[in-house]
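Hey forum,

I'm writing up a methods section and want to include a predicted complex as supplementary material. The small molecule is zinc ion. I've pasted the protein sequence and the SMILES. Can someone with a working setup run it? I'll credit the forum in the acknowledgements.
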Amino acid sequence: MKRIIPSSSIIIVVQSSFLLLLLLFSLTPTTSAHFFPNISSIPKSLIPNKTSWDAFNQFLGCHTGQKVDGLAKLKQYFQRFGYINTSLLNFTDDFDDYLGTALKTYQRNFNLNETGELDAPTLQHITRPRCGNPDIVNGTTSMNSGKVANANSLRPHTVAHYSFFPGMPRWPAGKTDLTYAFLPENQVEDVVRRVFANAFDRWSEVTTLNFTETASFSLADIKIGIFSGDHGDGEPFDGVLGTLAHAFSPPSGRLHLDGDENWVIDGDFLSAPSLASAVDLESVAVHEIGHLLGLGHSSVGEAIMYPSIGSATRKVELTKDDIQGIQMLYGSNPNFNWSTTLTPSNERDSNGSWGLKSSRILLIAGLFLLPIILL
Ligand SMILES: [Zn+2]
Ligand SMILES: [Zn+2]
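Reply by user p_vandermeer:
Happy to help. Structure tokens for the complex are below, copy them as they are.
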């Protein structure tokens, strides 16, 4: 006898399956991270014409008292990075005191002339890709604006510019062996792991800390994840360029990379320095590990802990400023030696330019494209 299934049951089963699928998809927003072996392997389709911050260039020459469409967005930018310390959500398009004060503080932090105007050098810095961590945390100034100027110093630029998070959080004194792991869903390939191992080495070479990769993401001290857009920690990523990554102060251990960037494994940009969207993975990894260990942003242009980085730029060597800052927190590696560590490029103090020299560029041959599906 043929069994007849009521049509209502079929509808319920189909509806349930559909709802289950819908639930699964809603719980697993997918994205793919773009890792490339070198700059020439980035497909043209992934290279944007412009990024959201490029729109700020229209404000060239703006100054106090003016009202220009879109200035509210620039105030949101300054609020995001700590320069406007208010919980206000709606800003006006007026060039008011909020913006004027923020601008001057920003200019001081980035070694620019404190004009209080949106001049070309300032806009060039504002539109540069950068770390998502704020320069000023909870109104507590760091970088240049938080330092007491020493008028009597003959070499004021030799004053240390490194900074810490408020309260100087660090990993506990007895905990010198830290483990790190990658979010399993990112399915990170070995070449990416090697870049991070190299980046961690740079910090362990100058401190008492050791870093070891572990398979257990949940038990690892440091958790590295690649995400796109809003990923649940209140610090959404913004697509290509803009903010590149962020990391939390100790002992949080969370380090997040923006999955929409075009990450380059071998950051030899000399062959194509004009490709604006390529970001050197190790350069950003070294910077974010600095945050994981307790360093804030520095005003020294060459320092790893400087907040922004030019795209298609490789900058991986710790400078004197970075080393002095991290050794304040953890002491020195017994094998560390200033004279063998510092090179002419990383010994310099602040002059606002970027060091491009690298003695340890990873040489990785072959085309490598890793699509990564996130939960
Ligand atoms: Zn940063
Ligand atoms: Zn995050």
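Some notes you might quote in the supplement: The CA atoms of residues 151 and 157 lie 11 Å apart. The chain has a mean pLDDT of 81.
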